[in-house]
Amino acid sequence: MPMRTRRAWVVATATALVATVALAAPAYAAPNNNSVNKITKAVTLDAVLNHLEAFQAIADQYGDRAAGRPGYRASVDYVVSQLTAAGYTPEVQPFEFDYFEENSELIRVSPNPTSFVDESDFLRNSFDTGSPKGTATGPLVPVGVVYPSEALPPNSNTSGCESTDFAGFPTGGIALVQRGSCGFAVKVLNAQAAGAAGVIVMNEGQAGRTGLVGMIGDATGLTIPAVFATSATGANLLSVPNSIVTVTVDYEADTRTAWNVLAETKAGNDANTVMAGAHLDSVQDGAGINDNGSGSAALLETAIQMQKTKPNNTVRFAWWGAEESGLLGSEHYVGALSDEQAGDIALYLNFDMIGSPNYFMGVYDGDNSSGTAAPGFIPEGSAQIEDVFEQYYTSVGEPFQDTEFSGRSDYGPFIAVGIPAGGLFTGAEGVKTAQQAAIFGGTAGVAFDPCYHAPCDDIDNLNAHALDVNSDAVAAAVMTFAFDTSTVNGVRTPGKSHGAGKSMDAFTDDATQ
Fold it and tell me: How far is Cα 140 from Cα 159, in angstroms, rounded to an integer?
């Protein structure tokens, strides 16, 4: 076994973080869980749920666990404290990222109070020269709006294009104008000149002109809050006479720090490291319990239960920061590796959303049997990782299916440098088919996770069976490759008989230490 050295990915010790939540670390007395059979018995649903309850408590205290916010810092501290109690020497890797927080609002105050959804029902202008912050409340005043407008030719509405359109406009009103024959900026500036306190630009309403189209554009000189709304949102506002409406444009953009948490086994071949990771952050304004407390908790419990294991290959566990901002933590980690360090990573396992309430058992399609990946996109060896997960599901009598190998989660940066990868996924905003409902149960025609990226992704937003089975699948795959990666990269451990083509049954007996 090569001499172990501390590598460049170690950036800051875990003690550099001050705990922000008081969460008692349990006493550990784990046996030597050195086989698939042992580790899957040791990783229990109750233990995984305990970690998720801790994540929920953090979100309850801070509002969410999003990168750049206090709840994420507390989540890092929790993982670090658990790893430390289990005998690891966890490391935290800080990185800076472009933080953005959107607090814009569109609300009908009365009658029939309604809060519209940002980035779904409406969108603020994103041009620096046309997105002044501010809030305004006043009577809704339609200006030349024609709705329903399906019978009108597209791009025909002249609403707000001329200053004369605003004749008699009440000072302090909220102008509702409609997409049409002139630029959005013209409309909002005309509304401002007429005394409007805020502006809503609704889409025109014909086929292909109903949704959000992006932004208002360069509105130099605009000083009042302005947003763009779908035609359906505009119709909703128009449907209630004498509406009082609030338009708020508020956002925060700066540079903040997030952290990756890394911990590895004390034993193992550094030159053939097995990595397993899950993103630790939630979206803003949510606990992120399924996405991705589920993967983080299962990985954490697997690490805890491997504390006495002496694997043939080094196992490095990772909890990534700022995944929801664009895979930033894993990109930072991979980007900081030298070619030699990247070459030492035998494979990467990713666990992102493994307890969806309306789940399917999805395995990353490493052999591209579904044909969704472009030629050359999937590194060699990924098919063999897929095989291990499928063998585990088969061994416990669980159905499974391919899920696309798209690079959408934190395995993306790893496969970009040629590292084989695989993982599990139980579904997000996609809708379950009747065929999937027949196989996995649940409800056809409903999203796999109806609370995906929503405040309701809390401790109740889980399927216990999916979480239980997949927590064991996480542990089983990590343990399998901890002792043998030969099917993936051909590296055989001297003196070991575990060879290419062996099934997971080869690891159900005690591994020789």
Answer: 15
CA distance between the termini of the chain: 13
Asked if residue 229 lies in contact with residue 209, where contact means CB atoms within 8 angstroms, the answer is no
Catalytic center residues: 323
4-8 own/partner pairs: CB under 8 Å, 24+ apart: 4/266, 4/270, 4/314, 5/270, 7/341, 8/336, 8/337, 8/338, 8/341
Task: Quote the CA–CA distance of 306 and 289 in Å, as a whole number.
Answer: 24
167, 142 contact by CB (below 8 A) = no
- Find tokens 């013209």 and name the residue: 186
What residues does 108 pair with on adjacent strands?
A: 114, 245
Mean pLDDT (whole number) for 309-336: 98
Instruction: List, in sequence order, every residue forming a beta bridge with 111; answer none if it has no partner.
Output: none
Predicted TM-score (pTM) of this structure: 0.85
Listed residue (194, 188, 189) closest to 229, CA to CA = 188
The pair of three-digit structure tokens given for residue 150, joined into one six-digit string: 């399906």
Q: From the CB of residue 223, how many other CB atoms can be counted at a distance below 10 Å?
A: 10
Question: What share of the chain has pLDDT > 70, as a percent?
Answer: 90
Concatenated DSSP letters for 352-406? -----TT---EEE-TT-TT--SPTT-SPTTHHHHHHHHHHHHHHTT---EEE---
490-506 core/surface letters (b: 16 or more CB in 10 A; e: else): eebbeeeebeeeeebeb
Tens of pLDDT along 196-255?
999 999 999 999 999 998 778 888 999 999 999 999 999 999 999 999 999 999 999 999
Q: Which of 498, 492, 494 is nearest to 510 (CA)?
A: 498
